[in-house]
Design brief:
203 residues, mainly alpha, globular
Length: 203
Amino acid sequence: MQRRTVLQIMGYSLGSAVLTSWLAACQDRPLEPSTSSWHTPAEVQILQELGEVILPKSDTPGARDLGVHQFIDLFVAEVLDGDRQQEWRRGLQAWEQRFSEHIGLAVEQATADQYTEELSRYWSISKEAQNAVRDFLDQPVPTTLVEENRWRAYLWLFEFKKLLLLGYYQSKEVGQEILVYDPVPGGYTPCMEIEPGTKAWSL
């Protein structure tokens, strides 16, 4: 693992430890787009809609129910430095522009089905196409605007998914009611049988 990757993971962990308590508090106070910490109202809407398409409500709460978009907004505002914030916004804007071009509408007018269809352009692809994307993202910033937008959109989407999952699984409701939660566990068992369907532990 590269040193940069290790430092990034450590930064995410330290930042999320602080923001998790904020997220728990936010769940009882829905954040309106106009009161976001860093993103514009239109950007907050993208975070909400995209997060709900990836983690929709079913018999478990969805990303919107848990206010994960609030966690992402606070994370970008409080954890990322100025250069990382700039890269985040450029990636978000590239993804938004490509989405708008594909549907022929402003992103604010997009439906959940159109968000789902847009995600399929990135993720529902063959193994060969996935390998090609991986090689593409390992390259420096492309020199043409179209390819640069594609490059930035992919990188942003992967970063967004990381933060979405981080905020979702560290939320109080998921940690205590969906995963296995035991703040005062028993003795340490180094090797034990794991039955199929066993839930992951949150604590």
